[in-house]
Amino acid sequence: MELQGETRQLPSYRRMLASHAVPTLTVLAHPRIERVGERAVLVDLIHEDGEGGRVELSRLSPGLAQPGSGSALPLATQLVSRRPLVLSSPDDGRVALDANALPEGAVRLDGVALGGRVELERERLEAGVVIELGTQVVMLLHLSAPELPDEGGPLPRLGLVGDSDALRDVRKAIVRAARQTGPVLVRGETGTGKELVAGALHQASARREGPYLAVNMAAVPPTLAASELFGHTKGSFSGAHQNSVGLFGRAHGGTLFMDEIGDTPLDVQAALLRVMETGEVQQVGADRVKQVDVRVIAATDADLEALIAQGRFRAPLRYRLSNLEIHIPPLRARKDDIGRLLVHFIATELAAHGRSDELEDRGPDGTSWIPAALVARLGRYAWPGNVRQLRNVARWLAGLDHRARPVDPEDPTLATLLVGEERAPVSVPEAEARAPGASVAKSGGHDKSERRKSALALVSPEELERLMEANDYKLGAVADALGVSRPALNDLVDAHPRLKRAQNLTLEELVQARAECGEIDRMWRHLKVSEKSLKLRMSALGLLD
After folding, report:
1. pLDDT per residue over 416-451, tens digit each?
2. CATH number for the domain harbouring residue 275
3. How far apart are CA 377 and CA 418, in angstroms?
């Protein structure tokens, strides 16, 4: 049967009522991969004249559409029952789900079998509730603002994947900042995509034709930070064999992205502030300044205000950066984007290996090769490593030979990728599920430091050492694999009995290692640090010609 979509216009009074966030259903998993990300804003649940609304969720209703599209279709898959899960609104803050018309086990709510009626508080809706319908469709019930026409036309995509309210706000902030010329501070937890936002801002600005350079200040040894940023003259220090214009010189006419700005040494912060205010750069060892035209985009997941109180960050630099700020939401605050991001990352990985045709593979029964149970598990997860961590999961999935063997939602590898996961119970007693006030345990909600502690606590010294060796002791790659920030990984390495960071190696240790190993290639493996960071440390101590 060919289904025809139809465009549905909201009555004017509904538009007024729906000016705030209302319950919304978004598809996280569907046998037809192109339907992932479709949603239905449930304006019918909004109260009118004191009476609660009602919506039926089944194979035949409601109509769902991709954001920005007016053509809506029902789920339309035989893998979902025609009998509905009924959603109603007993009052303005809650939503009730009634599964009494459905067979046992047909619906799971945040991983728990639903056998009757449950009422969800607004707090649960704000966090997002994962609904599994049968074995192949996963929905997220959450709060969202109905789409209204954007002033000045539709927002550009800016290379950012997702259609959540939170990401729409980020796009608006980028467009506003692109019209201005001052420095920008991008704030967000590790793995949220700060560098991607910085690149999008550069491309949207008038500097798009100029150079775009990036530096991670946490990866630059403090002794080399000034030279790296501002350049140096030949002979100004041991290892300075030629002149260098530094990153600011190379970024002239364009943009310099400074990640982990909170790790910038204090003396360099003063010079950085001068560059942003006057455009004047002084190379290490030079007796005169040079004029540069560079827009600085800084980023951090650190609490700069706390660093200022500790005397580790200069308040004037913070104030200079605070004129324009872009806040990137954590993935747990935009869970309706999880399905969209997962499909995007898998498609990207498959395309990179010439396997794009596999994305829409389905089994003889019409089921997707990406298990819905696995996607539901991802929807419930708290994502301490945010989008970067989800990308790692997608890479693992794309690397599997699903045509030879079905993907196992309980594959042990997934447990290592979802560090600190809190698994939902298999079921709850029927009487509890039917209780009017019954609820399912919430997940996530920890602050950043608690998430880091819970994630890193599960990494034993032996596991960390194996992971470091597998990644050639490159801290950035290891942080990506664990889904944590570089500063968090630095703390873990510093506490390890057999690991060190290159910047902490002493002159005596390096001299002894060179005597024992001879070549750099043997030294970095012996010292358990990356080759690049070892060379930087040796250069700083004058041990390289």
Report:
1. 888 877 665 443 333 333 333 333 333 333 444 544
2. 3.40.50.300
3. 10
